[in-house]
Amino acid sequence: MTEKKRYRKVVPVTVCIVGIIAFALLWQSRAPEENSGGKAGSSGNATANEEQWEAAETTPLGKYPETVEYTLGKISGANNSNLPVGDTYEDNAYTRYLRDVLNIQNINVFALEAGGSYEEALEAAISDRDIPDIMVVNGRDNLVRLVENGMIADLTDVYRQCTTDTIKEMYHSYGDSLLDSATFDGKLYAFPNAEIDDGAMMLWLRNDWIEKLGLEEPKTMEEGMDIVKAFVENDAAGNGETVGLACSTGLIAGSDETYGMDAIFTKFGSAPENWILNDNGEVEYGSLTQETKEALGYLNELYESGVIDSRFLLRKTENIDELVIEGKCGAIFGRWWAPNNPLISSYDEDSTADWQPYFLTAEEENQVDTFVSYDDWMYVVVRKGYDHPEIIGKYVSAIFDYSRYEDDQYAREVNEYFSINVDPTARPLNINVDYRDALYRSGENIRKALTNEISITQLSGLEKSYYDTCRSFVSGSLTTANGWAAYTSRVTAVDTLLEGGIKEENLLFMGEADAEIPQELQELEQQTFLQIIVGEKPLDYFDTFVVEWYENGGQELTDSVRKAYSETLE
User: Fold this and answer.
1) Same domain? 293 vs 399
2) Cα(284)–Cα(274) distance, rounded to whole angstroms?
3) Is the domain of 402 the same as that of 534?
4) Could you tell me which of 110, 352, 491, 537 has the fewest CB atoms within 10 Å of its CB?
5) 357/392 same-domain check
6) Which pLDDT belongs to residue 23?
7) In a shared domain, residues 215 and 324
8) Number of domains in the chain
9) pLDDT at 501 (0 to 100)
10) Domain coverage including residue 300
C-alpha cells in the first residue's frame, strides 16, 4: 500500500481572546469560504494557521488550511454508480463538495463492488493488519475483530466534538441500539450506517388494467388478490401471456429487494427470517411460529387458484424483470422505491403502464417486535494512528447535515445527483445518516410544496432537488421515466403510507450473540416453504420442519440468542 502524505497536528501553545472569538465566529458562520487560510508566514500568520488547524480538528465544519488526504477502502457500484460522464470516484460532486467545505480528498486503495470482491479485499486487509486510513466494514463481526485486535481508533471524542447537533439527533432517533452496536467498553469505535425506515411492503398494480376491466381499487389484501386473479383470467395484457403475482423464490425481500411475499406474512402477524420477541417475552425465530404456518397455507391457496405466477419456481430476478417490462405482469409487491427499480423500466417501455401502490396491511404492520442483530450492518472505521480521525465526523456532518439543510449554494450539484438517479455508492463512504423517519418527513414536505401548503424555501437541499423534478413531471414539462419514478415514489407512494397510518418499527438489539442462521437451516427453511406453497408437501409438514430445525442446531442457537438478550436487560 502506498503511504499517504502525513500532516503534522499543530497545537497552539497559548489561547488568546482573539483566538477564542475567531473560533466562535468560525463555527457559527458554518461557511466554507470563511474557514480558509494560507500557510504560516509571519508570526501573525502562523498563529492564524494554528487556529485554523485547531478549529478544523475540533469542530464539525472547520476547514483545513491545507488539503488533507486519506486512503480509503471504498464500496463501488454497478455502472460506475451511474455517475455523469467524466466524473470518477475520486472527482465527483461529493468529493468536490468535500474539498470546498472541508479541504479533504480521498485516495482510493481499492474500490470494489459489495457482494464478493469488496469483502475479499476487506478480509485481506484485516488479516494483513494493513487497513486504509478509513474504510467501510461490512458486518459487525468484522468490527469486533478490528476492535479486539486494536486496529481502529476510538471515535468517542470525534463523535462528541466533530458531529453537528443535527447528526446527533439523527442517530438518537433510532434509540440506543444503533450506537450501542458500535460501542465497546463505553467507547465508540465506528460510525454506523443509519438505515432509515423504508416503509411497509405495498401491492403495486397496473391501475390502467383495473380501469380496463372495470374493477374497483382494492381496500383489503383479499380484494387485491382478487384483482390479480382477474388480470390473469381476463388476459389483461392482451397477449395471451398474462402472468399472476410476481414472486421470488427467496419469498422474503427485506428492505432492499423486491418481488417478495413479505406483506402476506405481515397480514398473518408473521415475521420470517427475523428474531422476534414472542407473547411470552421470549426470543423466538420468526419462521417457526403458527402465524407463519397460517401464512404459508394462504400462499398455497393463492398458488392453487392461479393468483401467484405458476412458473415462479423457474424464474430468476432478471426473468421477472422482463415480465414487468414487457407488460406481461401487472402485480408485484414492493416498497416505496419500486418505481425507481424495477418499474421505471416498465414506464420507459410503455408510458401508459400506470403502476399504483396499495397499502393493504396497515392494521397489521409492526405488531411484532423484531430484533436487529447488525450481523450484516455497515460501519465506518478509522485506522488507529491516523492523524485525522475527526475526518469521519466532519464528513458525516458536511454530507448529511450541512449540504442538505443549510448550504444550498455549494451543495446544489450534490443534491442534483439524486434527481438524476446517481447511486449513493458514488459517495466516498457508502453509508447513510438520516432521521429514522426521514422518508416520511421529506415526502410530506415535497407534497406540501407542490400543493403550495409550504414555501419551497422551507425545503432542504435534497427535498428541493426532488421537488424540482416532481414539479416538472406534474406540469408536463418533464415526461421522462426518471420524472415519473421520482413523483410516484417520493409523493404517491409515501402519501399512501402516510394515509395508511404507518408507524415506525420497534427494533430491539439482541446483544453480542451470533444470531446468523446456518446455511443448512436456511436451505431447510426455504425448501420447506416452497414445497408447502406449491403443494408438494401438506401444510402440516410445517410442524415436522420446526422439529427438524431445532434438532439440527436451532435449539442451541436459540438458547445462545436468548442468553445474549437477557444480558442486555441486566
Assistant:
1) no
2) 9
3) no
4) 352
5) no
6) 36
7) yes
8) 3
9) 87
10) 202-364+510-569
| Residue 133 · residue 1 · CB < 8 Å | no
Q: How many whole angstroms separate alpha carbon 421 and alpha carbon 432?
A: 16
How far is Cα 394 from Cα 97, in angstroms, rounded to an integer? 12
Please provide the DSSP assignment of 282-308 as one string: -EEEGGGSHHHHHHHHHHHHHHHTT-B
The Cα 407–Cα 97 span in angstroms is 10
Q: Are residues 354 and 397 in the same domain?
A: no
Dmax (CA) of the chain: 86
Bridge partners, 519 (sequence order): none
Q: Scanning the structure block, which residue is given the C-alpha cell 400506470?
A: 354
d(Cα 461, Cα 97) in Å, to the nearest integer?
14
435 pLDDT exceeds 50?
yes
338 vs 509: CA distance, rounded Å: 29
Phi and psi angles of residue 438, each rounded to the nearest 5 degrees, phi first: -60, -35
In the chain, count H helices and then E strands: 24, 14
Question: Is there a contact between 283 and 256 (Cβ–Cβ < 8 Å)?
Answer: no
**Residue 214, phi then psi, degrees to nearest 5:** 65, 35
CA–CA separation, 132 and 428 (whole Å): 13
User: Do 252 and 165 belong together in one domain?
Assistant: no
**What is the structure's pLDDT at 44?**
62
pLDDT of 340-395, one tens digit each? 989 999 999 999 999 999 999 998 988 888 887 777 789 999 999 999 999 999 99
Question: Cα 568 from chain centroid?
Answer: 26
Phi/psi of residue 334, nearest 5 degrees: -165, 165
Q: Which three cell numbers stand for residue 67?
A: 488539503
Which CATH number do you get for residue 109? Answer: 3.40.190.10
What distance in Å separates the CA atoms of residue 144 and residue 204, rounded to the nearest whole number? 40
Distance CA 303, CA 287 (A): 20
Q: Per residue in 501-554, pLDDT tens?
A: 887 666 777 777 778 899 999 999 999 999 999 999 999 999 999 999 999 999
74 and 171 inside one domain: yes
The strand pair at 104-113 and 134-138 is best described as: unpaired
Grid cell digits, residue 402? 450541512
CA–CA distance, 439 with 463 (Å, rounded to integer): 11
Q: Is residue 351 part of a domain?
A: yes
The amino acid present at 497, given as its one-letter code, is L
329-340: string of b/e by CB count within 10 Å (b at 16+)?
bbbbbbbbbbbb
Does the pLDDT value for residue 34 go beyond 50? no
Q: Is residue 246 part of a domain?
A: yes
Burial of residue 270, with CB atoms counted within 10 A of its CB: 0-12 exposed, 13-18 middle, 19 or more buried: buried
Contact in structure between 278 and 284 (CB atoms under 8 Å):
yes
Specify whether 211 is located in the same domain as 235: yes
Q: Is residue 397 classed exposed, middle or buried when 0-12, 13-18 and 19+ CB atoms within 10 A define those classes?
A: buried
Write the CB contacts of 492 (distance below 8 Å, at least 6 apart in sequence). Answer: 356, 357
